[in-house]
Amino acid sequence: MFCTGIENSVPTINNGKTRVDEMEVCGHYKHWRTDFDLLEDMGIPYVRYGPPIHTTFLGPGKYDWEFADMTFADLRRRDITPIVDLCHFGVPDWIGNFQNTDFPELFADYASAFAERFPWVQLYTPVNEMFICATFSARIGWWNEQMHGDKPFVTALKNIVKANVLAMQCILKRRANAIFIQSESSEYFHAENPAAIGPAEVLNSMRFLSLDLNYGRRVDSEMYEYLFDNGMTKEEYHFFLGNRIKQHCILGNDYYWTNEHRVSADGTSVASGEVFGYTEITRQYYDRYRLPVMHTETNLIEGPNGDEAVQWLWKEWASVLRLRNDGIPTVGFTWYSLTDQVDWDCALREQRGTVNPLGLYDLDRNIRAVGKAYKQLIRDWRDVLPASSVCLVVPIVPPSHYNIMEEREVERHQRVVNLRPTTTQSNPQAG
């Protein structure tokens, strides 16, 4: 699945007073038709995309679908398959933030309403980068609740992951063959000296928490104590262990130059740059969860030479091919995002208006060098990979085939009904 994304990040900063809306600052609300034209011109059949939650989800049972109706109808008309991103780093003002224990059920209702309104949508990322969202909001205090500490982090994490799990359950009730592609940051923490080995090991266990809970995997013993020391209850933990949705999931993982860290003896860390790289870190996640893999985010700034992002694209693509050739079922690749982004150089903590040249296109919708390279890469590989694949084929129903699929399902159901014994028809009390 060759993919890109149109980012719908909406965290709040300044103690909840200011909303950072990437769709607004990147011009998508004005240029969404043009952006979809660019997808077609690139030959990209998949897009990570979702409605802005803060203007769509107005209250319990209250929704404004106007923008979603327009955009999703156009994606369907173009036969572009969305991977629907329902919650990207923020919640509506009336919910508050990720400390709100009502959030999981409220979000599940929102996901249910979306799936009801857009039944042809099959692929979802209910909550984007759960670990990063909890970390930035409640552990290092950058977004939303802007809290610091282990207890608010655990509260945010369990609320976010529970919201994701409940949303998947609700969507499956309305689309039984829905597929969930987690987009989670893949991290690694390197000890810079012997005294830092212990802190690095703790952080390397912590990085798995969101996916362990999401997939119903028992956490490491050290993390078990950490969760319970910081507010998780036995009932909450067993809710996650009782989750059986893993078989509907693809392990989507994100990798950037900043995803590896050098840890000091006091537990603080700084970005180390690429040390192991995507291939090795993805092996660690795959060995833990044994799910099909999709590279769901990467990018690099186009620097002074003009080819920095192009070289990173080829490097990440080579890593994906290596995983596939080694027998790890790798089913997709994503350059994120379609256009340049704004203020990600400060992690959206301030509204500086700084344009980050990370996209396939700039904000005037002119193609960048990496856009040209990705377009050629897709042309070169899209017909080769299915024929040479040793991996599974993901059972995706394109938007244009939804009605056909629905009709076939009705026919299949009718055949099952016709095959049932008819003896009970003469006896209303039977069976």
Describe the structure.
Helices cover 43% and strands 15% of the residues. The chain starts with a strand and ends in a 12-residue tail after the last helix. It has one domain (2-400): Glycosidases (TIM Barrel, Alpha-Beta Barrel). Helix 12 packs parallel to helix 13 (308-325). The longest helix has 25 residues, at 150-174. By secondary structure, the protein is of the alpha/beta class. The protein has helices at 22-25, 28-42, 53-56, 66-78, 103-117, 130-138, 150-174, 197-206, 209-214, 221-229, 234-241, 277-289, 308-325, 369-381, 384-388, 402-419; strands at 2-5, 12-13, 18-19, 46-49, 57-59, 62-63, 81-87, 123-127, 179-181, 184-185, 188-191, 249-254, 260-263, 269-271, 293-297, 330-335, 341-342, 355-356. An eight-stranded parallel barrel has the order 1-4-7-8-9-12-15-16, surrounded by four helices. A three-stranded mixed β-sheet has the order 11-13-14. A two-stranded antiparallel ribbon has the order 2-3.
Topology overview:
Elements (H helix, E strand, L loop, with lengths): L1 E4 L6 E2 L4 E2 L2 H4 L2 H15 L3 E4 L3 H4 E3 L2 E2 L2 H13 L2 E7 L15 H15 L5 E5 L2 H9 L11 H25 L4 E3 L2 E2 L2 E4 L5 H10 L2 H6 L6 H9 L4 H8 L7 E6 L5 E4 L5 E3 L5 H13 L3 E5 L10 H18 L4 E6 L5 E2 L12 E2 L12 H13 L2 H5 L13 H18 L12
Helix pairs in contact: 2-4, 5-7, 6-7, 12-13
